[in-house]
Amino acid sequence: MNFSGFQHSRFHYRLITVFLALMLSLAPFSAHADKLTDNTIRNFITTLEKAQALESEFENLNDTSNIESIDFSRMISSSVEKLKGQKAYGRLEDVVQDNGFNNLDEWAATGDRIYAAWMAIEMGDENPALNQEMKEAMADMENSPGMNDQQKAQMRAMMQAALGVTKTAAEAPPADIEAVRPHVNALKTISNNED
Question: Where are the domains of the chain?
Answer without folding.
Answer: 3-29+37-194
